[in-house]
Here is the input.
Amino acid sequence: MSELYIGLMSGTSLDAVDAVVASINHNNIDLVAKHEQPFPENLRKHILSMCNNQGTTLSAIGSLDHELGKLYAHTVNKLLKQSELTPAQITAIGNHGQTVFHQPTGESPFTIQLGDSHIIAALTGINTVADFRRLDMALGGQGAPLTPAFHQFVFANNQSQNLPDSTIAVVNIGGISNVTLMHANDPVTGFDTGPGNLLMDAWCEKHTGKRFDKDAQWARTGKLNNALLNQLMADPFIKQQAPKSTGREHYHVHWLETQIQNLTSSNTISPHDVQRTLCEFTACAITHHLEPVHKRTIQELLICGGGAKNPLLVERLSALLPNWQVKPTTDRGIPVDCMEAMAFAWLARQRIHNLPSNLPTVTGARKSASLGVLVSVDSINAQKTARNN
Here is the structure.
C-alpha cells in the first residue's frame, strides 16, 4: 500500500529548499508534487558565514536552528497548498536539515544539521523525521552519503535480472559531488568525490556578483589552466580511499585562493580561466573515481543535482567517459532537481516502518540501521492537552 511522504533537502549549494511529495510503497516511488523555496538572503549569508568559519556563538546557532525550522515548515505548508493536500494525508516529513559542519574522522567525529524538527512538526501538523546522519556515525560510519541506499531502491531492483553485466553509476552534483556505484550482483558502494558546484558558485559570486554561472556562460569564456587543475587534483581528499565524505569545512573559496597562490607558476590566472578550470576539476574528480570500475558490457552514468543543468560540465563528463552512457536521471524517471528530496522522503518511510536505510558498504558503519529521529505530532498534542488540564 502506498503512502504519501514529504522530503526536504537544502544542500551545500544554498540555493533553495527543495521539497517534494512522493507516493511510496515497498517497491516503488512516484513524484506527486514539488516546490522550490529560495533562501532568504539574510539567512543564506548567516549560514555561509557559519560554514566558512567566520566565528559564531551559541545564540547564533540556536537562532539559525529556529529560523531554518520555520523556513522548512513554511515550505511544507506552501507545497501542501499548491498540491491541494492536507497534513492528514501525509504520513511523515523527512527533513535533511542544513549541514553547517561535518567532521566524520578524528577522535570525536560529529555532524551538525540545523532546522528544528519540533518546529516543523508543530507548524505543519505532520510527523517529522530528521537527524538522519548521527546514528550511522555512532556505528562507526561517515554519516554520508546516505542517498546510495535510495539509488539502490530506485535503480538497482531489477538490474541483476535485466542487466546482468552492467554498472550503473549515479552522480549527484550538488555543492559537493557524490557517486553511487551499482554493479550487477555486487554490493553497492558510494562516496563523496569532491566539489560539485560549491567552488564554481563561490568563485562566480566573488567575481561577478551572480550566485552561479548560468549555463556555464562565463566559464566558456575562459581557458583551462592545467597547472591549476593539477594542483587541485593533488588535494589529499581526491586520493583518499573510501569510505569518505566532505563539505564546506574543507572546500571553500579561501582554500581555492590558497591553491592558486601555491602554484609554482608566476603567471597570473584570470578569474574566468579559474572558472573554466573549476568546472574541469569537478568533472575530473568524478571521473577519477570511476576509472577503477571494472568495465562491463553496459556502463551507465546517471547525473542529478544542480550540476546536471551545467551544459559544459555534462559535456566534459561525456568526453572524459567515452565508454559510458551519460544521461540525466530524468531519463530514468527521477527529475534531476528532485533526487535528494525524494531520497529523504524515502528515508522517512524507512524510519516510520523501522527498516534499514544506510549501507555499511558505503558509509563504513558496523551495521545497517533505521536512521532518523521521529518527532510525533501526537506527542506534541498530548503535551498541549496536559498543559490545558
Q: What stands out?
A: Residues 65 and 115 are 5 Å apart (CA to CA). Residues 3-142+338-388 form a domain with the Nucleotidyltransferase; domain 5 fold (CATH 3.30.420.40). The chain has a mean pLDDT of 92.
